[in-house]
Specification:
Oligomer: single chain
Helix content: 40-55%
Strand order of the largest sheet: 4-3-2-1-5-12
Radius of gyration: 20 Å
CATH architecture of the largest domain: Alpha-Beta Complex
Number of strands: 14
Number of helices: 11
Largest sheet: 6 strands, mixed
Number of domains: 2
Distance between the termini: 41 Å
Structural class: alpha/beta
Order of helices and strands: EHEHEHEHEEHEEEEEEHHEHHHEH
Shape: globular
CATH superfamily of the largest domain: Spore Coat Polysaccharide Biosynthesis Protein SpsA, Chain A
CATH class of the largest domain: Alpha Beta
Amino acid sequence: MISIVIVGYNSRQDLKDCFDSLFTSSYKRFKIIYVDNGSSDGSYQFVKDNYSKVIAIKNKNTGYAGGNNVGIKYALKHNMSKYPYRSSLPARRSFNEVGSRTNFSIPRLSAVHSKNKTDKANTRAESHYVFILNPDTIVDKDCLKILAQKADRQTIVQPLILLNIKGKNTRQINTTGSYLNFLGFSYCNNYRLDQNTAKEVEIGLSSGAAVLIAVDIIKKIGLLDENFFMYHEDVDWFYRARLNGFKIWLVPSAIVYHNYSFSKNKNKFFYSERNRLLFLYKNFTLKYLALIFPIFLINELLIILYSALNGWFLLKIKSYLSILKLLKQEGRGRRRNLILAKSMEKQNKQFIGSKISFSEVKNPLFLPYNLLLKLYFKIIYLLI
């Protein structure tokens, strides 16, 4: 059984295509949990009126992390009575099994609504996997079936995410997972390459736009960190999974189309910059942070200059102040992660790179700067 968690914020225009693609899936053992993050465009009522089989949860805007946590908690709470159990999914296994199980408390939820009363009993069905999905996606009819065949309880499974441009599904890659730069930057990997270039392979990080994750893994690593609110929260979550010894695999035969478009705005700049620093603080050892500090300092000065030229200087300063407020809250998480990082940092460094390259951003200065980053990372790579 797969619980599909979709978080929407004013996503009314995308929901029909997304839900319809799921309900025409060749795989039928799933339940959709839609979390509405305080939309003002009638999204929640649209779901209640038109999709009686969808569990609709009305939530305040707690960001991507908070919204997904609400859906995940609901999925786990309504399936814990029969846990543990053997998965009813196809027995085929393709990945190595690692990791372990631990206790996981499920807090109570409120404001959960389902139009069809008969669905209430059905939500007790076993849910061994959670599929995190963006609302602006279209899921290929065989995607869930393929992911279910490939899945195991110790491996995160990433479908191939292709671009949907102006309502047309394309062969261009949106992402094969998230690329992680050693200074904490993250972006879509293999963006706009042809889908034939994607191979079934272990990847560093999954994309939060569409990913299948076993309940066992969530019980081990916990929920998404709501301090991130939006941007980098998925990077933190999946890197945390890596620190706990779990693997992440790309399955290119399972396809999701994403109505993705690159954007630059004040909110994205603030949260991306703040959360990049928060991610580094939470997940890396003092040795690693000391090794990257010289080039990190140069990078910060360049970003401050960039922010000043674009009228975002105060936002950059605000990101530093916000980090200081979060340090105490994240201290416990950092201490826990550092215990794991000391043993896993050498293993995970193969999934970290030096290049900085953002979608649709073409700047000739990236070339010499990336050469500098490559040289610097090559030196410290041997010391990590």
